[in-house]
Amino acid sequence: MALYSEKVMDHFRNPRNVGVIENADGVGEVGNPVCGDIMKIYLKINADQIIEEVKFETFGCGSAIASSSMATELIKGQPVSEALKLTNKAVTEALDGLPAHKIHCSVLAEEAIKKAVKDYYDKNNIEYDPAIFPDDHDCEHCCGG
Ligand code: FES
């Protein structure tokens, strides 16, 4: 079996939603200190709290790029509350899997989206339960190497 699924290769070669949103309503950036990869997510959110547009910039490995591309596709057009439920597992499944040592790359996508939503909440003084946002990326947890 190939190491990477067709979907991973597709999203790596033709990533969707690459770029920057000027004046984004929420921006989230996370980095993985172990591999040095960085992911940044930009959200445009309307008055009904629907994600109208989402873009990403990822300086990272192919799996991180494929994960960001898939994650942005999954949350586009969704309510913010749904985007918060997106897990790295859902991203990995949508990509038809990632090699075990690359799972941490998909964690970056989940965390960058959460951070962008938190930024949106903070900027708009929207109340939320702080428990829904994990502390900043703790690489010890997910990056065995
Ligand atoms: Fe760093 Fe994939 S995100 S190796």
Blueprint of the fold:
Blueprint: H1 6-13, E1 26-31, E2 38-45, E3 51-59, H2 62-75, H3 80-83, H4 88-94, H5 103-123, H6 139-142
The chain binds FE2/S2 (inorganic) cluster.
What labels would you give this structure?
single chain, alpha+beta, 40% helix, binds FE2/S2 (inorganic) cluster, 16% strand, 145 residues, 3-stranded antiparallel sheet
* Helix segment tally: 6
Bound molecules: FE2/S2 (inorganic) cluster
Helix content: 40-55%
Strand order, largest beta sheet = 1-2-3
Strand proportion: 15-25%
> What's the overall average pLDDT, rounded?
92
How many individual β-strands? 3
Distance between the termini: 23 Å
Poorly predicted runs of 5 or more residues: none
Structural category: alpha+beta
How is this structure best described in words?
The chain is 40% helix and 16% strand. A three-stranded antiparallel β-sheet has the order 1-2-3. A hairpin with a 5-residue loop joins strand 2 and strand 3. Helix 1 packs across helix 2 and helix 2 packs across helix 5. The site of FE2/S2 (inorganic) cluster (FES) has 9 residues, from helix 2 and helix 5.
How would you summarize what this structure contains?
With 145 residues, the chain is an alpha+beta fold. It has helices at residues 6-13, 62-75, 80-83, 88-94, 103-123, 139-142, and strands at 26-31, 38-45, 51-59.
